[in-house]
Amino acid sequence: MAQSVPPGDIGTQPGTKIVFNAPYDDKHTYHIKITNAGGRRIGWAIKTTNMKRLGVDPPCGVLDPKENVLMAVSCDSFKYGEEDTNNDRITIEWTNTPDGAAKTFRREWFQGDGMVRRKNLPIEYNP
């Protein structure tokens, strides 16, 4: 039943983008709060467009209604101006968990017929 109902909204803090500030000769970490604003348990997962520069911890999880999690996004050192950063972003994907499922993340929730929602957070690099 849960798979036929669209997943509710999530909230993120920050809401629209992630900003990293120079210098980039050391690793930076930025924290994002993800809140399940809907009325059902959801499974969530993070994708990045640049796996070698950007890392996320934890990369996935399960949230009950109104529950939140603090996630760390890290940016490894790189040569600013010498690498293309225009398309860097992280994408949060989430879907309802099946009724009665344990509160343990399962990748297959995203591979069935259930609806998966996405939120993109572009990454800005200030010189």
Question: Overview of this structure, please?
Answer:
This protein is mostly beta strands and 127 residues long. The chain has one domain: Immunoglobulin-like, CATH 2.60.40.10. It is 0% helix and 46% strand. It has no helices and nine strands. The strands form two sheets. A five-stranded mixed sheet has the order 2-9-8-4-6, with no helix packed on it. It has a four-stranded antiparallel sheet with strand order 1-3-7-5, with no helix packed on it. The radius of gyration is 16 Å and the shape is elongated. It starts with 9 loop residues before the first strand and ends with a strand. Keywords: Cell projection, Cytoplasm, Cytoskeleton. It holds the Pfam family Motile_Sperm.
Number of separate domains: 1
Radius of gyration (CA) equals 16 Å
* DSSP, total strands: 9
Shape: elongated
Number of helices: 0
Helix/strand class: mainly beta
Helix content: under 10%
Sheet having the most strands: 5 strands, mixed
Mean pLDDT: 94
CATH class: Mainly Beta
Give the oligomer, counting copies of the same chain as homo and different chains as hetero. Answer: single chain
CATH superfamily: Immunoglobulins
CATH architecture field: Sandwich
Element-level helix/strand string: EEEEEEEEE
Query: Beta-sheet strand percentage?
Result: over 45%
